[in-house]
Amino acid sequence: MTTCTSLQRLSRQPLPPNGEYPETCACGPAVRFRCGHCWHDQCLDCGFCAVDGCVCHCMLGFTPGEDPPHGPTIWLGAHHARALARWCVPLCVSRRNLANLRDLPRAAAPWVCDSGAFTELSLHGRWTITPYAYARELRRYRDEIGWLSWAGPQDWMCEPQIIAKTGLSVAEHLARTVGNYLDLMAIDDTLKIIPSVQGDTVADYVRCLSLYDRAGVDLSALPLVGVGSICRRTSPREAAAILGTLAETGLPLHGFGLALDALDKCAEFLVSADSLAWSREARWNPPLPGHTHASCSNCVYWAMQWRERVLKVLHKPRQMVLRTTRTPS
Ligand SMILES: [Zn+2]
Ligand SMILES: [Zn+2]
Ligand SMILES: [Zn+2]
Ligand SMILES: [Zn+2]
Ligand SMILES: [Zn+2]
């Protein structure tokens, strides 16, 4: 691993009194320390901080790329809260990694909060935190971390292993998913929580749309609609069939937890997606050259290199699929 030699020593700046900092700070590399986001030494070459765990672009070897102009936006999954202050790219962090922290980091880039639904239901077979508690948490993250773009709901995914754990039917999972969104909106509709569409089969997802409709939620009027239970499917074709069907309704879709092959196949249907696939990939591979940890499953270098690979795929020109021309068989 290369190290950074030209460092400027910075002391941590005190935070401005509550409410005085802008919700979306616009610090760039040269000025971002002014708001107190980061108290590490700053690399004099690129302006980003260069302490282990931070991402100085010289150490990274590249400048992190931008999302393609016409989407989808990639929210890079991160395991640790501190990534929010350090990685400087759009991130997705689970509430599970924030809930027990007394001191929250200050976000240095926009981020989204995942509700940790899969882990919650895998462990307990039900939600152990109430919508009231979740809304309270989200208000804290929004106010103390800042730059929270949106948060996922306490939805009920429909993977067979989760259905087995809760002992409930798919229909019940759909009803509870819609019900939770209604609860959260009734508790605090200023929180930017996105609704989630769940299902096992394509027909389930369509049924879930109509449940929202019957509950009086006009999904087409919302800026973003999440699609769940697609990340653990064995074939990216299944995810594409679901997302393609939902995209035909014109809804702006977010894909929860997609791997690279699914992202490639489904990019045209999506406004955004989040992914921790880099971490799983790193776990099953030897660490990057020179890295001393057993695996790079928590490593910013692996994460950022994976993100570059994703962006390369997403930036490649996409051809509209001509559904009418089929090779005769
Ligand atoms: Zn440097
Ligand atoms: Zn700032
Ligand atoms: Zn730093
Ligand atoms: Zn640098
Ligand atoms: Zn590593």
Concise summary:
The protein is an alpha/beta fold and 329 residues long. 34% of the residues lie in helices and 11% in strands. It has eleven helices and ten strands.
Could you walk me through the main structural features you see in this protein, from its secondary elements to its overall organization?
- With 329 residues, this protein is α/β, with parallel strands linked by helices.
- It has two domains: 1-15 and 26-52, no CATH class; 63-288 and 295-315, TIM Barrel (Alpha-Beta Barrel).
- The protein has eleven helices and ten strands.
- The chain has helices at residues 57-60, 83-86, 117-124, 131-145, 160-166, 170-187, 202-214, 236-247, 260-266, 277-283, 300-315; strands at residues 7-8, 42-43, 73-78, 91-94, 111-114, 148-151, 196-197, 225-227, 253-255, 270-275.
- Strands 6-5-4-3-10-9-8-7 form an eight-stranded parallel sheet.
- Strand 8, helix 8 (236-247) and strand 9 form a beta-alpha-beta unit.
- Helix 6 (170-187) runs parallel beside helix 7 and helix 8 packs parallel to helix 9 (260-266).
- The longest helix has 18 residues, at 170-187.
- The radius of gyration is 21 Å and the shape is globular.
- It starts with 6 loop residues before the first strand and ends in a 14-residue tail after the last helix.
- Residues 9-40 and 320-329 have low confidence and may be disordered.
